């Protein structure tokens, strides 16, 4: 039996073995459960307790001995729903904390620059825009490489949906030679204006900016991004971007 969905629902390997054993043998004391599941007697009670808390196992006491029984399998769906509700509540709680957490991180910075590495690092530095930009504000990208790995395209497409919902604007300048389908896709999202660079220069690195922040990124196999938080530097790079932008035409 494929138990991957049970693991994804939040059950441990031990909990899954005990739960499935109980489904097969019915109401039972710990002896048969240990034998059927292969779980050590020393930890089976702890696992049964956790399954009971999750509403997946019940018990009754007969002659001073607990007899355990798995609840109906439909209870698994209820458990997943309850878990999702708790995760959503936790998410909202963390969202409320983010301004304070961000302020703490900013105050603790040893300097005005940070380096992020790998695909996850590029994502992390970009998603900071949602912490610092308000509805109606924008970020810009200059010199986006003509070729990107598919995982980046997938990420940007998902992110543009999120950005549009947040009503954050963006202007994007792609290197010439970029597949027109890419620009057509980026322009299909609200508040996005994607165009070709006005010159044929080709570099694997791009520059991104907003408010007091400038990011120099490289979307290679080992991707990286350097974030600089400095208003004068941000204003300088924004001026360069605006000059490039003046030489472009809307994508058609």
Defining traits:
Arc Repressor Mutant, subunit A, single chain, 21% strand, two-stranded antiparallel ribbon, elongated, seven-stranded mixed sheet, 252 residues, 10 helices, Endonuclease, Chain A, alpha+beta, 2 domains
Q: Would you mind describing this structure in some detail?
A:
- This protein is α+β, with helices and mostly antiparallel strands.
- The protein has two domains: 1-108, Winged helix-like DNA-binding domain superfamily/Winged helix DNA-binding domain (Arc Repressor Mutant, subunit A, Orthogonal Bundle), CATH 1.10.10; 111-246, 2-Layer Sandwich (Endonuclease, Chain A), CATH 3.30.870.10.
- It is 51% helix and 21% strand.
- The chain contains ten helices and nine strands.
- It has helices at 4-8, 13-25, 30-37, 41-53, 75-108, 118-127, 129-132, 150-166, 180-187, 231-246, and strands at residues 57-62, 65-70, 113-117, 138-144, 169-174, 192-196, 205-210, 213-218, 224-229.
- A hairpin with a 5-residue loop joins strand 8 and strand 9.
Which helices and strands occur, and which strands form pairs?
Elements: H1 4-8, H2 13-25, H3 30-37, H4 41-53, E1 57-62, E2 65-70, H5 75-108, E3 113-117, H6 118-127, H7 129-132, E4 138-144, H8 150-166, E5 169-174, H9 180-187, E6 192-196, E7 205-210, E8 213-218, E9 224-229, H10 231-246
Parallel strand pairs: 4-5, 5-6
Antiparallel strand pairs: 1-2, 3-9, 4-7, 7-8, 8-9
Helix pairs in contact: 2-3, 2-4
């Amino acid at each position: 039996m494929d138990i991957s969905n049970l693991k994804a629902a939040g059950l441990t390997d031990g909990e899954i073995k005990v739960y499935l054993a109980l489904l097969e043998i019915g109401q039972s004391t710990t002896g048969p459960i240990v034998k059927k599941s292969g779980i050590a007697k020393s930890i089976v009670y702890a696992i049964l307790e956790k399954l009971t808390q999750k509403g997946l196992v019940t018990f009754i006491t007969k002659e001073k001995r607990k007899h355990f029984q798995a609840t109906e399998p439909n209870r698994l769906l209820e458990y997943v729903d309850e878990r999702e509700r708790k995760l959503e509540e936790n998410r909202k709680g963390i969202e409320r904390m983010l301004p304070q957490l961000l302020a703490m991180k900013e105050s603790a910075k040893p300097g005005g620059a940070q380096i992020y590495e790998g695909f996850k690092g590029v994502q992390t530095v970009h998603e900071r825009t949602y912490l610092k930009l308000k509805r109606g504000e924008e970020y810009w990208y200059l010199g986006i490489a003509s070729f990107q790995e598919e995982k980046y395209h997938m990420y940007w497409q998902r992110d543009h949906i999120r950005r549009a919902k947040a009503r954050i604007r963006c202007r994007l300048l792609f290197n010439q030679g970029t597949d027109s389908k890419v620009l057509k896709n980026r322009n299909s999202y609200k508040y996005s204006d994607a165009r070709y660079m006005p010159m044929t220069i080709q570099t694997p690195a791009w520059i991104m900016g907003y408010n007091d922040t400038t990011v120099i990124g490289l979307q290679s196999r080992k991707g990286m991004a350097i974030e600089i938080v400095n208003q004068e530097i941000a204003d300088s790079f924004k001026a360069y971007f605006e000059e490039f932008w003046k030489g472009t035409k809307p994508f058609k």
